[in-house]
Amino acid sequence: MSPIMRPNSQALKQRSLHETEREFGGTLGAVCIPVLLPLTVLFLISVSRSPEASLLQWPPVLPSTHQLWDPVALVLLLGWIALHALLYAMPLGKVSEGLTLRDGTRLKYPINGFLGLCVSGVLLILLLELGAPLGSLFELLLPLAVCAIALSFLFSIYLYIRSFWAPSHALALGGNTGNPLYDFFIGRELNPRIGNFDFKYFCELRPGLIGWVVLNLGMLMKEVELRGSPSLAMMLVNSFQLLYVADALWNEEAVLTTMDIVHDGFGFMLVFGDLAWVPFTYGLQASFLVEHPQTLSPLGSLTIIALNGIGYYIFRKSNSQKNQFRRDPTHPSVARLETIATATGKRLLVSGWWGLVRHPNYLGDLLMALAWSLPCGFSHLLPYFYVIYFTVLLIHREDRDERQCRAKYGLAWDTYCRRVPYRIFPYIY
């Protein structure tokens, strides 16, 4: 039996943690979140398009029934997903192996997401040259979101049903509790596939993430229709978020070591997040700017650009260092960094970026999130929804990671925490 397959106390302790502890409020969260989050998406889009754009307006801004459905939206959504499924399946780019699974195997993944982004860009340029009304995406935001939400529920039901034919070693440790509501929400199967087509990996970086920047472009084109040219604020939001998406796809291989791929099952939580939450809430700043244009001073613009640049530098450098260390700790770029040995045989970084705070990538992420909101000014809270939500999300995610690492590494993790006392913000948190 290989060392990876051999049971040990730490592995048993980690499995026990997953079996007894339920995330996101357990059954109550599994019932409430699939209801509240879709309603939140529709509410935020409606508010961003309203003249007041007030999150506190009462009665709240609610769309009429006819605003929620348009058959064109369904055709666009299904066609978009089909396009990227085709690009995903094409034998282009290299193939990389994921981390070792519980049965000792390693799955193979195509690394061609950046190609999908480039093809999408070429197609959009052709559509613009042909006079396609991309600004119509502004009017289609609500029906597109409704279709994405409905598809998320249908796809999650399919994933839950098919998971009962998966072998036990293919199930996520935290998603096989026997509670159907919770397991549907959190995801039973770790890596659901048809042949070599990995559903979770495909959804993680393809249709929703690239769709986000396409919707942003639609908002920019709508502003051009209304005012003759895009504002500096709109161009900054589009540029910052395009850089973020392009970076994720250029460094696609790094996602194979993330919590979403390695630990979490593929259920409603991730399906909805990938297909509906990301494209329709992460770009709220762009839809807000269509109805609420902002004027930026040269100094303000340079400050915002600098903030985004600093955040991106921290985010990229720390993530690259972590990914390189996980894949090859003997690589010259990480070999000289100080580490702590653990009972699992792995080592923990206590110098470099990961000696500054325990999650320097989260720090960079939050600085960028703030830079995306600042072009929208300070008169409304709505454009700052993303940075507020993302702060809560990353603190919760950090807490999940903290508990998993403590269960996995034991005393070594306590030593690491003493060496690196701050979690995300140096000298603050």
Describe the structure.
- This protein has two domains: 268 residues, no CATH class; 134 residues, no CATH class.
- It has 429 residues and is mainly α.
- It is globular, with a radius of gyration of 22 Å.
- The chain has 17 helices and six strands.
- Pathway: Steroid biosynthesis; cholesterol biosynthesis.
- Keywords: Cholesterol biosynthesis, Cholesterol metabolism, Endoplasmic reticulum, Lipid biosynthesis, Lipid metabolism, Membrane, Oxidoreductase, Steroid biosynthesis, Steroid metabolism, Sterol biosynthesis, Sterol metabolism, Transmembrane, Transmembrane helix.
- It is a multi-pass membrane protein.
- Catalyzes the reduction of the C14-unsaturated bond of lanosterol, as part of the metabolic pathway leading to cholesterol biosynthesis.
Q: Compute the number of structural domains.
A: 2
Order of helices and strands: HHHEEHHHEEHHHHHHHHEEHHH
What is the residue-mean pLDDT, rounded to a whole number? 87
What would the principal axes of the Cα set say about the shape? globular
Instruction: Give the distance, in angstroms, between the N- and C-terminal Cα atoms.
Output: 43 Å
Strand content: under 5%
Query: Unreliable segments (pLDDT under 50, ≥5 consecutive)?
Result: 1-20
Rounded radius of gyration (Å): 22 Å
Total count of strands: 6
Helices and strands: which structural class?
Answer: mainly alpha
- Biggest sheet, in brief? 2 strands, antiparallel
Strand order of the biggest β-sheet: 1-2
Determine the number of helices (DSSP H or I, runs of at least 4 residues): 17
User: Approximately how much helix is present in the residues?
Assistant: 55-70%
